[in-house]
Design a protein that fits this description.
The complex is a heterodimer of chains A (898) and B (185). In chain A, 24% of the residues lie in helices and 13% in strands. Chain A is an alpha/beta fold and 898 residues long. Chain A has a domain at 716-883: Beta Barrel (Barwin-like endoglucanases). Chain A starts with a helix and ends in a 15-residue tail after the last helix. Chain B has 3 domains: 1-33, no CATH class; 42-94, N-terminal domain of TfIIb (Single Sheet); 102-184, no CATH class. Chain B is elongated. Chain B has helices spanning 8-14, 28-32, 84-87, 89-94, 117-135, 161-174; strands at 42-47, 56-62, 65-71, 102-105, 113-115, 136-140, 143-155, 176-181. In chain B, a hairpin with a 2-residue loop joins strand 6 and strand 7 (143-155). Classes of the chains: A alpha/beta (898), B alpha+beta (185). The interface between A and B is large, with 166 and 120 residues.
Chain lengths: 898, 185
């Protein structure tokens, strides 16, 4: 979403769903995975909204939907692309919105070649390096950089600037898709446009041609969705969008966990923009996150490629000093034009007095990345012996990450491992009772890894904030001190840092200067010396030269007079008040509830809300009024904080030469974008194409019907012994893995189970691992309801109880009836509720933008009975590999592969 | 009074509580029952730690122990509701499966040993420094990197913002870059 709109967060908030006339939920089972948030969907339904659920499985979300569309897992781009084609072909798009607020009229470089021209790939593919050169995707007159505020690390990357081209060879690995955010300087914020959108090189026409073959017939043959049902969805969405009506989209990891995951969300973004549903009440795209602060974990990232506030980590050899870093990052237009102020303020927050204009504010203290260093590359580095120490903090990769075996083997090759959790999760005990001990692949006494287990404090035992799915920070107060030696992660890192600083205090080594100069003097409280979370929040918010809290990121300076730990959070501690802890009851305020918690940016609840008014500043309709221009007061007003300069009139046009926010006109609602517009076509920022194209999943039983290109050409794959991929559908071995597998989660469990398999209530409600299969499949494979089944892929074999159910709709595609198998992934051998981990089956094949694994659509076989024990378990997997003719190169191709 | 006269149905039919939702159906015992919440010493405002809906929670504390966790009716997001996981968060925070001791498995060891917290913290600090020294990299292919590839981290996404902030700040200062999170997964 960052690439399309400029910021990486849900565009709306859960309560606003009640205003929707139609809600499309796809890639999410919201009723079961976000049950309490789902009340807002039901509110909308009670007000007459139509609810559509698109999902391979029939779930409780489907049960209350007006329309349930079962589709083949891994084909959502074809489905949504089909709707885009319908909306354009039948002229059901919101033309005034598209012309004014999107890059639909913008002209693209003549060098650009589409998948239509090149049989499934875009211009610029370097097959040898498995990456794209983005040069030919640019706007006609120059380049535009992607804004860095992107959700789920949707990468930004531009390559217009010549200097950047020279540096490109240095980033060969980086082109695997990290969001290092390079890009050309001096990109024009005002590229050539054709307001009639007739020019064949304008974005709208390119989009139209690109999706023209995504017809209802093609959708039926790829997704298995009957034409009539598909057209019903198209008509419902189109008739519930426009001036008077709005439709909202909700998605979750059913969209992200694919080798083309980012492009799933891009397809939805394009569709919602064509329908004019972004920035308006009852519209938007709501990303449903599964973890209390997963949005916060990308905003204040514990991610290799980002610094707080989506500032990219510097890249070795390219971002050599502060000037080159900023020159490669900032945009001429929009708020990203002030990124030097954000960066300098961050450096001041971290290195305080030591950071001066003379030393580039200690910019050189930052370590550099040199490619992708994602969690999956880290596992490879552990197996290779370069990564020797590992902290696992509230996470359970031994069963929770794709290819769980490789996760454990990586850990077995470490010098030391620190695990912080409530209970003895699988990531803490694999050396003693993991699956490899049982099979004999590892012996406890041979494993040299030192393991530390630290008990963690619960949320009731510490102060702090979570950022929820709608960008809203909420404070939780400590009720009691943590018992025994349980401690918060705040305590652990503060005191670890203090110890490291003490040990290095007298060092004269240059490598230790960043540690010595680090600001680390947080006040502590109570008998256990808990650092003050509120003091940390105040640093995140930022302060001026006198130490006074800032109230807006517009106050940040590039001269070192301000310090700020995360610029997008500035304002969360304005006036020295913890705004995050505000709890005015909802009955005592407007439906937007602006005085509950605090949402980034600037407490705005629907972002890009300038687009809720027409170019002249009037609401598109009274029914959908949200923010509008008040001529008498000469300011924007309405139900929310305007996501726009409140004093900038709709008719404002910037003077020539204006920079950054000053360069935004009165009709540029997407204030983080380099051109102020939302992007139907992404001229930069994505590793795998400026437009989404349907590719089959890495493991798929079907050939790509649309292109000669089977899979995402620049997906990330690893030719490792324990990460074997399945044959292409045209290869004889493909039939060895005839079923589609899709993973999911349940109401009663949480992720890899660390917070739910040890709770007796939850364990009783969902006591063990199971798989869902259709009665036809059960009959064909002699599977008994409540009996056992073994599921096998080229990576592993697991057992599960069998749940025979018609909820797993068989799909007919290209004349073949295909069965899909549902696999909840919460389990592992520890805790009260036990079972094999579905992640034993999944390969590490990743989206090239965000390095997220494909676990929502892959293939496998199922057979009756329990899996073999001991070495025979390994032998079974090897037998399948042999039968399928799998080698190191299977499924690894860049081009073709059908 | 006869046994019959004490029969609640009779009371309900003849008395003012015709719907049987008040006095008529109260026994001596139920009259004296009180909710666990009634005599809590304090109620602390919190947020559910599971998914990202962000339901409000009221944490009831008695004698410095958490005795119950309920949905916060004031929250504009959740309006007092909790799902099965949120409702089970009392077990998450006070259940018997929680550990309160630091455990240590030495290289090639076959079982856990209990460690003192301070000792363990010192040991981890020493290992960070040693590994950092051994794996320090000023340059790679003649390009300045100023980092270590020897230390990695994977965090869950139910950590607080403040915790993530200190993690990223400390790791960056020591030059560790393989810092990752559930957000990637």
């Amino acid at each position: 979403m960052g690439t399309s709109f400029g910021r990486g967060g849900a565009t709306t908030f859960q309560q606003d769903l009640q205003n929707a006339d139609c809600i499309l939920i796809e890639g999410s089972n919201m009723a079961e995975c976000h049950p309490v948030g789902f009340q807002w969907v039901m509110e909308a339904k009670a007000r007459g909204a139509t609810l559509i659920h698109v999902d391979p499985r029939y779930t409780r979300t489907s049960a209350v939907a007006d329309i349930h569309v079962p589709l083949r897992a891994g084909t959502d781009i074809a489905f949504l692309g089909g709707i885009i084609n319908y909306v354009i072909e039948h002229e059901r798009y919101f033309r005034d919105y598209v012309v004014a607020y999107t890059n639909g009229p913008t002209l693209i470089s003549e060098e650009f070649k589409d998948t239509e021209d090149l049989d499934g790939v875009f211009s610029g593919l370097d097959a040898e390096q498995r990456k794209y050169d983005f040069h030919s995707w640019e706007y006609q007159t120059g380049a535009v950089q992607a804004a860095s505020g992107h959700r789920e690390m949707e990468a930004k990357q531009a390559d217009a600037h010549q200097q950047r081209h020279q540096a490109e060879s240095a980033k060969a690995e980086a082109a695997h898709g990290e969001s290092h955010g390079s890009g050309g300087a001096a990109a024009p914020g005002n590229p050539d446009r054709d307001e009639t959108m007739q020019d064949p090189r304008c974005v709208f026409q390119i989009v139209k041609r690109h999706f023209s073959r995504y017809t209802p017939e093609v959708v039926e043959q790829i997704c298995g969705v009957p034409k009539e049902l598909f057209l019903k969805v198209c008509e419902t969405l189109a008739s519930n969008s426009g001036r008077e009506r709005t439709s909202a989209f909700c998605y979750a990891v059913g969209w992200t966990q694919h080798s083309v995951g980012v492009q799933y969300i891009r397809t939805a973004a394009i569709l919602q923009l064509l329908l004019g549903n972004i920035g308006r009440p009852g519209g938007g795209i709501l990303a449903l996150r599964g973890h209390a602060s997963i949005q916060g974990s990308t905003d204040i990232p514990t991610l290799f490629n980002l610094l707080p506030g989506y500032l990219p980590m510097p890249h070795a050899g390219v971002d050599v000093d502060l000037d080159t870093y900023v020159a490669g990052e900032e945009t001429d237009k929009g708020f990203w034009g002030d990124m030097r102020s954000y960066m300098v303020s961050l450096l001041k927050a971290w290195w305080g007095e030591a950071a001066t204009p003379e030393n580039d504010f200690c910019y050189d203290y930052l370590p550099r990345i040199s490619g992708s260093h994602s969690t999956y590359e880290t596992v490879m580095a552990q197996l290779d012996g370069t990564c020797k120490g590992y902290f696992i903090v509230g996470e359970n990769p031994a069963v929770g990450s794709a290819n769980a075996k490789m996760q454990r083997l990586g850990m077995a090759n470490l010098d030391w491992l620190v695990v912080r959790d409530f209970s003895l999760i699988e990531s803490a005990t694999w050396w003693k009772d993991g699956p490899e001990i049982e099979t004999g692949e590892l012996r406890t006494e041979d494993i040299a890894t030192e393991v530390f287990f630290f008990p963690a404090a619960a949320h009731t035992e510490k102060n702090g904030s979570f950022t929820n799915t709608q960008r809203m920070l909420q404070w939780h107060h400590a009720a009691i001190e943590p018992p025994g030696h349980a401690r918060s992660d705040l305590w652990f890192y503060y005191h670890l840092g203090r110890r490291i600083k003490d040990r290095l205090a007298t060092s004269s080594e240059a490598m230790d200067r960043p540690v010595q100069d680090l600001t680390w003097d947080y006040p502590t409280e109570g008998a256990i010396a808990e650092p003050s979370a509120e003091a940390v929040l105040a640093e995140i918010n930022g302060y001026d030269a006198n130490g006074a809290p800032l109230s807006s990121y517009e106050q940040l300076n590039e001269d070192g007079s301000t310090a700020c730990g995360c610029w997008i959070y500035t304002g969360c501690y304005s006036d020295g008040v913890n705004q995050v802890a505000r709890r005015k009851p909802w009955r005592e305020q407007s439906w937007v509830a602006p005085e509950w918690g605090w949402a980034w940016p600037a407490n705005r609840r629907i972002i890009y809300n300038r687009a809720s008014a027409d170019p002249d500043g009037k609401p598109w309709s009274e029914r959908k009024a949200y923010i509008w221009w008040d001529d008498d007061k000469a300011r924007w007003t309405g139900h929310d904080v305007p996501d726009f300069d409140a004093r900038k009139s709709p008719w404002h046009r910037p003077p020539a030469g204006a920079k950054a926010a000053e360069a935004l006109s009165g009709v540029d609602p997407f204030v983080m974008q380099a051109d102020g517009k939302a992007w139907l076509f992404a001229p930069t920022g994505l590793q795998d194409g400026p437009l989404p194209a349907h590719y089959e999943p890495q493991d798929s039983p079907f050939a790509n019907l649309l292109y000669g290109q089977q899979r995402n050409p620049v997906r990330q794959v690893f030719p490792r012994k324990h990460n074997r991929l399945h044959p292409s559908p045209s290869e004889p071995g493909s039939a060895v893995f005839p079923y589609v597998l899709t993973t999911y989660r349940l109401t009663e469990h949480h992720t890899a189970g660390g917070m739910s398999r040890w709770q007796p209530y939850l364990a009783e409600l969902q006591p063990e691992m199971f798989c869902e299969v259709h009665p036809e499949l059960a009959k064909a494979r002699e599977l008994e309801h409540l009996g056992w089944a073994t599921i096998v892929t080229a990576r592993g074999a697991i057992e599960a109880r069998v749940l025979v159910t018609e909820r797993m709709t068989p799909i007919t595609v290209q004349g073949r009836r295909i069965h899909q198998i549902g696999l909840p992934y919460h389990w592992g051998p520890n805790g009260y509720s036990q079972g094999d981990a579905a992640n034993e089956l999944a390969a590490i094949s990743l989206d090239p933008n965000v390095h997220i694994q494909e676990v929502k659509a892959f293939t496998g076989d199922i057979r009756p009975g329990r899996r073999p024990r001991g070495p025979e378990r390994v032998a079974l997997v090897e037998e399948y590999q042999r039968r399928a003719g799998i080698t190191e190169s299977t499924g690894m191709e860049v081009r073709g592969g059908r | 009074m006869t046994k019959m006269a004490k029969w609640p149905v009779l009371d309900q039919l003849t008395g003012p509580d015709r719907l049987g939702r008040g006095k008529a159906v109260k026994s001596k015992r139920s009259e004296h029952l009180t909710a666990r919440l009634a005599d809590a010493d304090r109620v602390v405002k919190s947020v559910c730690p599971y998914c990202a809906v962000g339901c409000g929670q009221n944490v009831f504390v008695k004698n410095n122990k958490v005795v119950q966790i309920e949905g916060d009716p004031d929250s504009p997001v959740s309006r007092g509701r909790l799902c099965p996981k949120g409702s089970a968060s009392l077990q998450l925070t006070t259940g018997e499966a929680r550990r309160y001791e630091v455990l240590y498995r030495r290289p090639h060891g076959s079982d856990w040993e209990v460690l003192d917290l301070d000792t363990a913290m010192d040991m981890v600090a020493d290992r960070v420094i040693t590994t950092r020294r051994e794996t320090w990299q000023w340059e790679q292919e003649a390009k300045r990197t100023r980092r270590t590839l020897g230390i990695a981290s994977l965090g869950g996404a139910t950590l607080d913002n403040e915790e993530n902030y200190l993690m990223k700040k400390l790791y960056t200062a020591i030059g560790a870059i393989q810092i990752e999170n559930q957000a990637r997964i």
